[in-house]
Amino acid sequence: MNQLAIVTGATKGIGRACVENFASEGLDIVACSRNSDDLEGLKKDVESTYEVTVHIKPVDVSKKEEVLSFGEFIKSLDQSIAVLVNNAGVFIPGSVHEEEDGMLEKMVETNLYSAYHLSRSLVPVMKRQKKGHIFNMCSIASITAYENGGSYSISKFAMLGMSKNLREELKEFGIRVTAVMPGATYTASWEGLDIDPNRLMKAEDVANSVLSAHKMSNGTVVEDIVLRPQLGDL
């Protein structure tokens, strides 16, 4: 029976690229996103390309009860968990003092609480296995303040803090934790904007760094991955 790679926000961008990479390594996939049609398309494409099974579930990760239900769905599969990629997130530009009321709650719920609740749901399984690898998709915004970062930056700073804490808590159980901090990456967030795609990183490059970190021996952990466009931040 194949091990599982779990990816949130799995149908586009970095999430989709991570799914492809782990499927190519023979891991079964558990994928979630909000759009059922996109999930069905992902399942069809990946299963027709790789000899793996793709389990899908529509989830709005900003809602705690849906995240917890997703965790129970994963555990019901009764397969060893190799990887959890907490990738789902939302970016709405704005400044802390001027952004629309409710932006902090929206981005913290989506970007931070989703990863917090899903990790808490699945860590007991990994502890029993004495292995597993958690990737938290943070951001350059986790370490660098910038104009119009606002609540997004706050949520990603917190995501990095959670990753560091998890790393210390779980290392004795053989569970690796990696914080991934990509700079500007060409995903759906940039579509429609007047910018040269070559100025941005490719989602596949971020996913390749995740796979590379995962494939290291169990005695080694890449704690932080920082990636930026060659010409620097935007």
TrEMBL record:
SUPFAM superfamilies: NAD(P)-binding Rossmann-fold domains. It holds the Pfam family adh_short. One of its GO terms (molecular function) is oxidoreductase activity. One of its GO terms (cellular component) is membrane. Keywords: Oxidoreductase. InterPro entries: NAD(P)-bd_dom_sf (IPR036291), Sc_DH/Rdtase_CS (IPR020904), SDR_fam (IPR002347). It comes from the Bacteria. Belongs to the short-chain dehydrogenases/reductases (SDR) family. This is Short-chain dehydrogenase. It comes from Mangrovivirga cuniculi.
